[in-house]
Design goal:
4 helices; alpha+beta
Amino acid sequence: MIRLKRFEDIKMPDYTITEVPDIESVVTKETIYSTFERYSLSCDPKQNKSLNEVEYTIDNNHIKCSFTAYTYDGQVSKNILDTLSKIAKKLKADDFTFGNFSRFGSYLVTFEYTNETLQKLELEQNIDKYNL
């Protein structure tokens, strides 16, 4: 007779108590950097310390990204709103706002998340982490 081992009980967080995860742990800066890189944009401060920046606003679940383009003149393409909507889909943001100019040639975009979206994203991370 073969005995099967019991799997360890993995307790998932209970989201009925209005427990909202921290936005920094759900959407990491490395994820943001790599997503912008795919579209020839940069928000990584290692590449341009004075222009690129990612800032989290924990109170209202926003991510503010100052970014530059990988072109000679630093101008973004004419279809930047399409590109930013694709980036927002990759980052699974609910909405985004695009500020044309933030400072000295960089552009500003703000990604907005709801509490429900953050809970869902954390749940997806836990599912991937525990291979459920």
